[in-house]
UniProtKB/TrEMBL annotation:
InterPro entries: AIG2-like_dom, GGCT-like, GGCT-like_sf
Pfam families linked to this entry: GGACT (PF06094)
Name of this protein: Gamma-glutamylcyclotransferase family protein
Matching CDD domains: GGCT_like (cd06661)
Stretches for region Disordered: 126-145
Chain intervals with Basic and acidic residues compositional bias: 133-145
Protein species of origin: Streptomyces tamarix
Domain Gamma-glutamylcyclotransferase AIG2-like intervals: 8-133
């Protein structure tokens, strides 16, 4: 990573095991690990979540560092996926902000890019616990007749 290349904090469909992780991140990251965005809430959306800054909650996700030489392409791909056209652009679905996230393994505050809901986004209900993965059914759970 060169100076100015921030890691990314992902919390929804870009997390490991989710469809956009496989499609956009596989082979483009050098490191990934659990992290939390404090002072934010996670809201359901139309098939993807929205992080909304403010409050006392937190958002569960992963911090990832781009592989050598992959940063520019990864930044462009994520901006496109998140419908980010530039700071405060009226067509943005998400705004890309530099935020400090807490790396779970050591509690360190790490500056990272985080895509948060833009003004035109319409967040749905808050997801308790701030974890997008908690809202899907548990696989291989025992079934009751």
């Amino acid at each position: 990573m060169t100076p100015g290349e921030l890691p990314f904090f992902v919390y929804g469909t870009l997390r490991p095991g989710e469809p956009h992780h496989t499609r956009l991140l596989r082979g483009r990251t050098a490191a990934e690990g659990p992290a939390r965005l404090l002072g934010a809430a996670l809201h359901d959306g139309p098939g993807y979540p929205y992080a909304v800054r403010g409050g006392t909650g937190h958002v569960v996700g992963e911090i990832l560092r781009a592989a050598p030489g992959a940063y520019g392409g990864l930044l462009s791909a994520l901006d496109h996926l998140e419908e980010y056209h530039g700071p405060d652009h009226p067509l943005n679905l998400y705004e890309r902000h530099r935020c400090d996230v807490v790396r779970v393994r050591d509690g360190a505050l790490v500056p990272a890019w985080v895509y948060v809901a833009a003004p035109r986004a319409v967040p749905g209900p808050r997801i308790p616990g701030g974890d997008w993965l908690s809202r899907r059914p548990v696989r291989d759970a025992p079934r009751t007749p």
